[in-house]
Design goal:
By secondary structure, chain A is of the alpha/beta class. Chain A contains 5 helices and 9 strands; from the N terminus they run βββαββαααβαβββ. Chains A and B meet through α2 of A and α1, α6, α7 and α10 of B.
């Protein structure tokens, strides 16, 4: 069986700056992998590279065994971007945004089906936004908008999710909703890769954590359990076994 | 109004106004959502070169405007993707090149006077064959939006999500740009190339003061577009003034009214909630 996500020797360069410096990451079906690291360590770049949204300057990415450029089975993938873009001020309702998550399953010449609507209803209920379905997304708080983005991915009923900081700037209640949703997905055997600064209520669900520093994986395995000083929210992980940073490369 | 319809040229003008009123705001909603509100303006400038070429070669200015503006739309889209920095300078070059080319070609053809009718519109001079072209283009625009609307919504909302949903992002980007070009040619006779963009943007700006959803915005924008186009035509005939600016100013008036109404609606909503 092919892996949902595979990155071999992944290297990403913006202009002359190396943002990922040869990262290997294989995500097996059913895993919940959290990508952690300080700001600018390359977390978002890593998950965007997994999806082919950021081109690799070296190395290879695969989605279910196929390079992103030739991948056709996008209905298996659910991407949750960092934030909701309020397109040019044109309003959109919660339901319209969540319904657009069905796009990879829809045929161009057929209207939305009952199955589409049922999936959208389930996704809205899962994130606790069913009562806001007709409201414009611009009226929602940051945490609620994040839940709408997750519902959009859920509506597509993918096998694997990629979430870019779904907990950033999100209130406690939305974090708990996200944890409950994730638990259900994990129970169904779905795969999740997510970027997070703090795990909070997500922690018990994580099967593996990957810590990035300056574009390299410096820790992989159990989520580093915060102890002593490290338990402070918002601290930076500093690992003694991390390779000495090379000044000049990133500066 | 009814007795005015006994005039052939006014019947044609009225049909053209309705077509413009529907097509321009419908496309405009996607364009505004994609944060390209001035795209129509740029294409309008480029279309002028087509008009000039049509006058110079004594062929159809409408058809040549169509070809040149479609090519221009593709060029704008390619420039937008290729050049991250300085993209707006590249666009400016295209716009002014288009405008200057149009004026020069029209001058060479000795038909500078008729250039005016393309710059500022002359809906009353729409011929039957013009009307067929305009109607065909308007139908094409609406069919494109009906078939690709869902995909264009995702694209215009968030291009990366569109890519991660497996949508043909490059094709859709070109499609929306070319559709905008078709719309420019539809609206060219009614309001003129310099005001084309107004009918793509102002009704949408008015609608989004009042609506909560995307579909509703398209619907209200189209209603505003029809009111402005037909109402503007009627006022201009009645008062014997130029139709193009009348249509656009009427749309602006609706926009101002919508801003006030939208404020009141929101105030009432926050009171009840």
């Amino acid at each position: 069986m092919s892996l949902p996500f595979l990155l071999t020797g992944g290297e990403v360069r913006f202009e002359r700056r190396l943002v990922l410096r040869g990262v290997d990451l294989a995500v097996r079906p059913g895993e919940v992998v959290v990508v952690m690291g300080a700001n600018g360590s390359g977390k978002s770049t890593l998950i965007r590279a997994l999806l082919g949204l950021t081109p690799l300057s070296a190395g290879r990415a695969e989605l279910y065994g196929v390079p992103p450029g030739r991948f056709r089975d996008w209905k298996r993938i659910g991407y949750v971007p960092q934030r909701l873009s309020i397109g040019g001020g044109v309003p959109a309702t919660v339901r319209e945004i969540v319904s657009s998550g069905r796009i990879a399953r829809q045929s161009r010449f057929r209207p939305s089906s009952a199955a589409d609507r049922a999936a959208v209803d389930r996704a809205l209920v899962a994130v606790g936004m069913a009562d806001r379905a007709r409201d414009p997304v611009s009226d929602l708080s940051g945490g609620q908008q994040q839940r709408v983005l997750i519902a959009r991915a859920l509506a597509g009923e993918p096998d694997a999710f990629v979430m870019d900081e779904p907990t950033a700037g999100v209130d406690v209640r939305s974090q708990q909703t996200l944890a409950d949703t994730l638990r259900e997905l994990v129970g169904q055997g779905r795969t999740v890769v997510l970027v997070a600064h703090e795990l909070g209520p997500l922690e018990p669900l994580i099967t593996r954590s990957v810590v990035l520093d300056q574009g390299l994986i410096v820790h992989e395995g159990q989520p580093p359990s915060p102890l002593g000083d490290c338990a402070r929210p918002g601290h930076d992980h500093i690992h003694p076994h991390a390779p000495a940073s090379e000044p000049g490369l990133l500066s | 109004m009814i007795e005015l319809l006994s005039y052939d040229f006014l019947r044609r003008a009225l049909i053209a106004a309705v077509l413009v009123g529907v097509a321009a705001p419908a496309v405009g909603t996607f364009i505004v959502q994609r944060r390209l509100a001035l795209l129509g303006d740029g294409i309008g400038h480029i279309a002028l070169t087509g008009v000039g070429l049509g006058l110079l070669t004594r062929t159809s200015p409408t058809i040549l405007a169509l070809i040149v503006s479609a090519l221009g739309a593709v060029a704008i889209e390619l420039l937008r993707v290729r050049t991250r920095t300085g993209g707006d300078v590249a666009l400016a070059l295209l716009f002014y090149g288009g405008l200057a080319g149009g004026v020069l070609f029209a001058n060479l053809s000795g038909g500078s006077a008729s250039l005016n009718s393309y710059l500022f519109g002359s809906i009353a001079s729409v011929s039957t064959s013009d009307l067929y072209v305009v109607a065909g283009l308007a139908v094409a625009v609406l069919v494109i939006l009906a078939v690709f609307g869902r995909e264009l919504f995702v694209l215009c909302q968030d291009e990366e999500v569109a890519r991660a949903s497996g949508l043909p992002v490059r094709f859709l980007s070109l499609l929306i740009a070319v559709t905008a070009a078709l719309t420019v040619v539809v609206a060219m006779r009614a309001v003129g190339l310099l005001l084309v963009s107004a009918l793509m943007v102002v009704p949408v700006a008015a609608a989004q003061q009042l609506t909560r959803g995307f579909r509703a915005t398209i619907g209200v924008a189209v209603v505003v577009g029809i009111i402005a186009a037909v109402g503007g035509l009627w006022v201009s005939v009645d008062a014997d003034i130029a139709p193009g600016p009348t249509i656009v100013l009427l749309a602006m008036a609706v926009f101002l009214g919508a801003v006030g109404t939208g404020r009141l609606l929101r105030m009432r909503r926050t009171e009840t909630s």
